[in-house]
Design brief:
Immunoglobulin-like; 359 residues
Length: 359
Amino acid sequence: MWRNWALNTVFVFCAAPVTAQAAVIINEIAWMGTESSANDEWIELYNTGPTEVVLDGWEVSDGMNLSIALSGTLSAGSHAVLERTDDDSAHGAAFLIYTGALPNTGATMRLYRADGSIEDQVAGGENWELIGGDNVTKETAQYTSSGWITAAATPGRENASTGSTETTTETSQGTKTTTTSSTGSATTKAVSAADELSHELTLTFLVPTVAYVGQPVTFTAEATGLGAGVLSSLRYSWNFGDLGTAKGEEVSHTYRYPGKYIISARGAYGEYEAIKEATVTILPVDLSITHSPTGDLQLHNDAKYTIDLSRFTVAGIKLPDRTKLLAGSTLTIPKRDLAPSAQLLTTVYDSSGTLALMS
């Protein structure tokens, strides 16, 4: 569940929250600690579903300094208070004691299931401005059906229904204005689109710079910069520049015509998206066959560039990997290595098994 709201810059409008159905949510965050100690931080989970949830193998992480391994069972409609260092951080018994700290400068909290997928996510923003909390009064950030509010702490209990909220807007000149108000019902937090997205996702891929007509080309994408749960949930789509498309982390494509093509790969999941482009040159395979006076077979590269003949089959003979023929060069296969039929009909198949030449 992604629980933050966006206000587009220059042209101001509220965008609908991006939401995924989650049974267990991050419900309250005491990133500021308590009046007793700034180290008395705690995080509250809440099971909104109708059945209990086994948390064995689950994890709460901010992707930086905090990684909390969960275990146990959370009953339907119950709260679980995770307390830092000891059981004195919040009133009531702790569901779990953890080590680590939340930065006052803000973080994005993620709740991972045992399989590494994301159950819930809360983007705190810079200085936690997207969800609230007060480092002076020690009021916590609390989630309600209408959005996040700042209110007196409620560890292990139902969250407050009223509190203070902030609205952040940005003018066309880029000036940010923040106002704080007290309201009877929680209001949404509005931020610029640039503030909402972290742009942490980076996409790279393995793409050959040169390939050949009629031969399958393998493309592989790799994403970095985010947690393992998000990276494993990414969905990849490819555009090969010749009307061909594919989906998957590793794909294969065969070009029918020579030319230069722009390859585009997109990795996306929820609010995260990255696009990477590269150029591939597809060359024609320009070969010809002759026979010497002594009956040897001669395979000529008539192109003005080197051709990779790896795994080509010439007159029934499979060429080994990394066999390359320079521009204007000839590969000679002795008559003694040829089948008698090769004198009458000689075929050349490319690495995909497609007939490339017959003489």
